[in-house]
Amino acid sequence: MAINTAGKDILIFGIQGAGKGTQGEILAKKFDLVIFETGGALRKIREEDSELGRTVKDIMDRGDLVTNEIVMNIVEDFLEKNKGKRILFDGIPRMMEQKITFDALLQKYGRTVQGIFLTLDEPEAIARMIARGRKDDTEEVIRRRLDNYKKETLPVINEYMSAGVLTEINGKGDIEEIAQNIEKVLS
Ligand code: AMP
Q1: pLDDT digits (tens, 9 = 90+) for 108-139
Q2: If you ran DSSP here, which 8-state letter would residue 19 be given?
Q3: pTM of the predicted model, to two decimals?
Q4: Which CATH code of 3.40.50.300, 1.10.10.10, 3.30.365.10, 3.30.360.10 fits the domain covering 9-186?
Q5: Centre of ligand 1 from the C-alpha of residue 60, in Å
Q6: What is the DSSP string of 59-73?
Q7: Gap from CA of 17 to ligand 1 centroid (Å)
Q8: Ligand 1 atom 8: the closest Cα is on which residue?
Q9: Using CA atoms, how far apart are residues 172 and 156, in angstroms rounded to an integer?
């Protein structure tokens, strides 16, 4: 069944390597959304020669989650700059504490959300992460990030699933086909 997402922001969730970035870009083009990619925004900050840059770099190099305060400042800044536009949120919220502040922030800005949970089994996710070879994709860091995903992010996904905010989509297979399946759900 298709869900009417007119005027709503879109959330995209899934294990690392599930294709959030790829599918997010396709979706953003189709629905005219501006993308907020949390990991990308943080990767920019980590390059800065500042205390904040160094703090973010240390956390990311370990494969841990950046503190809620830092992330929320970036999100609020983005919301301020993108009033009146529909947003695609990739990579947020990543932990329960963040979900609470994120939901409150959405409410403050009068925004409502609907989204997608892209599923992929863990061995396939690891293989994809190794294949893309990003700077923070070393074996130990990958394992740490997957642990954090299961421990911190899955509870967030489960809550949004029970609230009817997310629809599950199989992330394995052909990119175009997955994109079509997403489009069938979010009309
Ligand atoms: P990603 O590209 O989404 O896999 O994110 C890369 C890294 O950025 C993660 O391993 C975290 O260190 C950090 N990160 C991304 N999104 C968040 C978030 N919502 N909260 C905290 N840390 C995040």
Answers
A1: 999 999 999 999 999 999 999 989 877 778 88
A2: S
A3: 0.95
A4: 3.40.50.300
A5: 7
A6: HHHHTPPPPHHHHHH
A7: 13
A8: 39
A9: 22
